[in-house]
């Protein structure tokens, strides 16, 4: 079963029934997609045309791109077209067979990446460099439009695609002025807008039909009808090799997380959180020294052959080239501030000597 994380399905009982119908088709070797019964003409979705009637569901006659409004109106009036939900059910073996036939370049790269899979805790991580070379294509283009085994089960269960900022406004709970807000926001003379504040207070004054999204990484302000153009912005970030395209300020690791709260020419400041009982790798850095200050919890710090226990308001200095490790032996999360200083502060300046998550270099 392939599901998107950004779909809203109100009638879960009907959805479960349709899943069982799709399962019956999938067990016959079909690649099943869910076609949404349209409630109105919509230009933001692709459409699926129903083909021959099966015992359960339909064969797929064709997949069509997002239409203009007159075409969408015609599709809905005909009763033969359904919104493409992007949800699927199939046997893994059936899909892999179809992928190998219709998109052998994708199949080959993915197979190589899987062969070099690494595991840490509950995560299965494919080889990053190999997978990065995989061609970019949708499952519709790569397989579903080409296979003769495509089938469709219709679904009428209060489905909504909340994959855009505009759709979050459409499905969200609105105030008296038609605004949907999340986080610390202050709106004055603003109507029919979506405002999401994740990190700081966001004030919006005298605007209508806008989307404002603030995160630790960036801020976006857009007209609601143009918010989907964020894809163009992302492509520009990639082309211009902006760090925001690849790196987030807050990063999660098997042992906890870190938040890069400040940086400059020769320094970087992080807030590090280590989960109870977890330990970072035994490591060293060629180009940076580090200062650790414990904010809360207990830190077991090893530098070279010496180990010491630090508690709140205590600190330690780790020179360039020193082999060191950090562990939380306590029952509560360990929080500390790390100040890095040096000529090069990249995340790749790390040599791991041992690591409980299988990431050691030596």
UniProtKB/TrEMBL annotation:
Keywords: GTP-binding, Nucleotide-binding, Nucleotidyltransferase, Transferase
Catalytic activity: alpha-D-mannose 1-phosphate + GTP + H(+) = GDP-alpha-D-mannose + diphosphate
GO biological process terms, semicolon-separated: GDP-mannose biosynthetic process; polysaccharide biosynthetic process
Enzymatic class: transferase
CDD domains: cupin_PMI_typeII_C
Transferase as UniProt keyword: yes
GO molecular function: GTP binding; mannose-1-phosphate guanylyltransferase (GTP) activity
Domain Mannose-6-phosphate isomerase type II C-terminal: 242-355
Residue ranges occupied by any Nucleotidyl transferase domain in the UniProt entry: 1-176
EC number(s) from the headed UniProt entry: 2.7.7.13
Protein family (similarity comment): Belongs to the mannose-6-phosphate isomerase type 2 family.
PANTHER family in alphabetical order: MANNOSE-1-PHOSPHATE GUANYLYLTRANSFERASE
Descriptive protein name: mannose-1-phosphate guanylyltransferase
Provenance organism: marine sediment metagenome
């Amino acid at each position: 079963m392939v599901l998107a994380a950004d779909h809203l399905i109100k009638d879960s009982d009907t959805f479960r029934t349709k899943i069982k119908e799709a399962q019956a088709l999938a067990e016959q070797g079909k690649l099943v997609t869910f076609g949404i019964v349209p409630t109105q003409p919509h230009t933001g979705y692709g459409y699926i045309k129903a083909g021959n009637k099966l015992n359960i569901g339909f064969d797929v006659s064709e997949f069509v791109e997002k239409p203009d409004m007159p075409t969408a109106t015609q599709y809905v009036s005909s009763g033969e077209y359904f919104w493409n939900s992007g949800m699927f059910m199939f046997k893994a073996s059936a899909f892999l067979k179809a992928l190998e036939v219709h998109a052998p370049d994708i199949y080959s790269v993915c197979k190589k990446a899987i062969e070099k899979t690494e595991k840490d805790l509950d995560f299965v991580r494919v080889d990053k460099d190999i997978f990065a070379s995989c061609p970019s294509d949708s499952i519709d283009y790569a397989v579903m439009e080409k296979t003769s085994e495509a089938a469709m089960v219709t679904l009428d269960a209060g489905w909504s695609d909340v994959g855009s900022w505009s759709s979050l406004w459409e499905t969200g709970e609105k105030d008296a002025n038609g605004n949907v807000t999340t986080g610390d926001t202050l709106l004055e003379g603003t109507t029919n807008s979506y405002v999401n504040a994740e990190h700081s207070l966001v004030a919006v004054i005298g605007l209508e039909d806008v989307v404002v999204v603030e995160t630790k990484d960036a801020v976006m302000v857009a007209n609601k009808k143009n918010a989907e153009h964020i894809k163009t912005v992302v492509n520009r970030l990639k082309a211009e090799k902006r760090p925001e395209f690849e790196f987030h300020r807050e990063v999660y690791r098997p042992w906890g997380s870190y938040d890069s709260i400040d940086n400059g020419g020769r320094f970087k400041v992080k807030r590090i959180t280590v989960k109870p009982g977890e330990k970072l790798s035994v490591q060293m850095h060629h180009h940076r020294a580090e200062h650790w200050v414990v904010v809360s919890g207990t830190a077991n710090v090893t530098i070279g052959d010496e180990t010491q226990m630090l508690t709140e308001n205590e600190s330690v200095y780790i020179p360039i080239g020193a082999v060191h490790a950090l562990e939380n032996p306590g029952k509560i999360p360990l929080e500390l501030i790390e100040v890095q200083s040096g000529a090069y502060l990249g995340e790749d300046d790390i040599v791991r000597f041992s690591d409980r998550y299988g990431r050691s270099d030596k």
